[in-house]
């Protein structure tokens, strides 16, 4: 069948001259036979979607630790909203939707339990440091499939690694995800903060609201339209200066009002202590780690790095369960 070739030809005929074409990918770390149906970026998207690491995102904190309610975001719902933003922008600009979606689905796959609190904890105790974007790439490259990795394309790996503000992806699709991530978390974290009573809708500063609107849907519409209108027909992904400044002002407002709010973050100290305690425990009991992690150690991976891999892959629920199993006494029954 020539389905893949036909799809690649369609990309060539319909996408922007600035799009990243599947047929022009820089390839994978290990050569492998091409799929007869799916272009390479679609194949990468599927691999990420079907991975265990992706499924674990449903039980990892976005902002609020173990919230009492069904409608608060998790790391997975955040990821899905980033992917939707990225696809909308990529389609409007005639860029590669499959590449944008694959990067979006993988960008937070290495995130820790308990959100950024877990990330800070591992950064403090692991001698090799810890950044979730680097861990996402490590997870996709090495840890998934019990040490085999997913063997993704260079373009997807680049977008995942460089989705943070201090780095810049090499593809326009990666740059779309980088902005889509910020748009998603600013928007939905505000909504969750209002739901949790941390903020009220009227708390948004007037100078920001006058530019981008006062509701979450207005913000999303403003940001996405601005990116599309400012970037259309250009070999760059940008926002207009006033809207970008408003977005960053809103981000600063969220950090001040929510991300460092003692009510919202009151349990984070416990989460940090829990992660540090588990790290110290497994550093002394590496024989309890899964077999493929022990094998990676035998092949030269440092002990501290491997323990960090194990802890960072945990869901909130699994980390709490391991802590209770190790440190909380069980009731004693005689039958």
Characterise this structure.
With 335 residues, this protein is an all-alpha fold. The protein has a single domain, classed as Hypothetical protein af1432 (Orthogonal Bundle). Helices cover 61% and strands 0% of the residues. The chain is built from 16 helices and no strands. Helix 10 crosses helix 12. The radius of gyration is 21 Å and the shape is flat. The mean pLDDT is 93.
The CATH class assignment is Mainly Alpha
User: What string, H for helix and E for strand, traces the elements in order?
Assistant: HHHHHHHHHHHHHHHH
Shape descriptor reads flat
**Residue share in β-strands:** under 5%
The helical percent reads 55-70%
Would you tell me which CATH topology applies? Hypothetical protein af1432
CATH architecture: Orthogonal Bundle
How confident is the prediction overall: mean pLDDT? 93
Query: Poorly predicted ranges (pLDDT <50, ≥5 residues)?
Result: none
In the CATH hierarchy, what is the superfamily?
Answer: Hypothetical protein af1432
Strands, total number: 0
Span of the ends, CA to CA: 65 Å
Kindly provide the radius of gyration, computed on alpha-carbon positions and rounded to a whole number of angstroms.
21 Å
The largest sheet, given as strand count, sense and whether it forms a barrel, is: none
**Separate helix tally:** 16
**SS-based structural class?**
mainly alpha
